[in-house]
Amino acid sequence: MIRIGDFSKLSCVTVKTLRFYDEMGLLKPVQVDPFTGYRYYNYDQLPRLHRILALRDLGFSIESIGQLLEQDLGAEQIHGMLLLRQAEIRDKMAEEEQRLQRVTAWLNQIEQEDKVSEYTVVIKSAEPIRVASIREVVPTPTDQSVLWKELGAYLEAQKVKPVGACLTLYHDKEHLENNWDVEVCEHITDALKETERVKVRTLPAAKKLACTVHKGPFTTIPQAYDAILKWINDNGYHICGPCREVYLAPAGDGSQNDPNIVTEVQYEVEK
Known about the structure:
Helix content: 25-40%
Low-confidence stretches: none
Strand content: 25-35%
Structural class: alpha+beta
């Protein structure tokens, strides 16, 4: 038998780690002196320690290593666990590769513009929401104001109060100079009778939304669109759904030039 200090030097594993493996039941000393508490090991425990170190290097948890060592698993079961670990590592590598792309895109933006963009883009998800909406082709986005007035008047007449932020969906797949296909939407939970103009539907969940926030009048919101569209392209995404403008803090006076307007621009995206 050899003392824990000598076993530590022989195996190149710290005494602290050997004690931890003892506490976790992975590698028990063959003897513990009842008076001094010294732990003693045998040379034939080195193969088990090497197996523990190899499994730790592969990223297995302490619990998984305990199963592999103690449950007398067959080759097929061990093979299955290794395949699962291989898949986990590949998923992690894919996540890190995407993170590297985002870092590179941010670096490129700073190098090209010599400043950090005021528009930070993040990816998030959205739950389904039930909306009352009016959809129509309008000459320009600013002309949707008449649709908002119509929708608001109908909801008020029906005594239905919107909940949450309202939003506009832009259904055109490319930028247009005029004749925009827009849908103005109010989030509702109450029952509402549809009309020829006002429809009730559920916007589906979105797994991945590229989002950025614009604070200021709508006259400057094209800057937010330029930033988010560049980010989507630079990070290897493509748009797979209508654009959403979510009005988090609408104009207090109804003016589109209010500098305190807060709008979130969202695009559903996928790789």
